Amino acid sequence: MEEGSQVSLSAIIINYQGRDFLPRTLSSLEAELARLELRSEIILVDNASTDGSLSVVREKFPSVKVIQLSENCGFARAANIGAAQSRGDWLFFLNNDVELLPDCLQPLITFLSEHEAYAIAAPGVFNPDQSFQLSFGRDLGLMSEFFLKYLAQPWYKLVYQLRKERMERDVAWVSGVALVIRRPMFFAVGGFDERFFFYIEDADLGRRLRSRGFKIRYLPQARLIHYRGAVASRFPRLSLTEAKKSQLLYYSLYHGPVSQRLLRIYLWAQFRAKILWAGWRGDEDRKSIYSEVLRIVRSFGDASSA
Length: 306
Known about the structure:
The protein is built from 10 helices and 12 strands.
């Protein structure tokens, strides 16, 4: 694309140590963008990867605009940096470990074009075996904690299998794994909250958008595969500790002191039990990770009450 030409869609990929995943993600993205009658650009924001990610991108995908950060800033800040340097009317945020299936993007763009009240449209996310992967939800709180953790995945998987045509719906939030958002609405609410390193920044964005009267749509007929391997499985300590920090932060922003205290009690009991179980199994690595989570829970409570 010529420099300065009008861009309709900017695909923004946040990368950290994703060398093994990026070729599949970028190949499927380029193929999908080629199907659209839109001018587009691909921006990759790299969180100081050291695994050769950028060498792969520059060699095999020279048209991708690379923004190389000097440190790992997390998802929210990196996404905001990418958005600030983008030119598209639509912003398509996606993880580095996905594969877009044919005709993934067009339904999202078409829906948003025809429904001005909606800020976000997001595709259905599926596992590599094509089974359903939960990627949306209700507002986060104590009542939804148990449902999301234990019941939501099997329930919606069953609903999808039985009546997939009824799964399209308005939701409170969609996963940052992949979502399309109108540029003006993204910047109207200040983008992602950079206090969230990663995890839950998507639920926070959804909450702030809906507080401004905007809606969010889940469209499972648009499909992609999420391989779930870029961070969580390879960096379990970083993944779990940051997830709990984000959960505690979210409660401090949107819930009162009683709910915050109950959350800390719940997390303390949960991870105390995990520590005992890991110790009994002789898994010192897991025991160390769970102990760090407990320290985070305790220190957050102390800071909140100070």
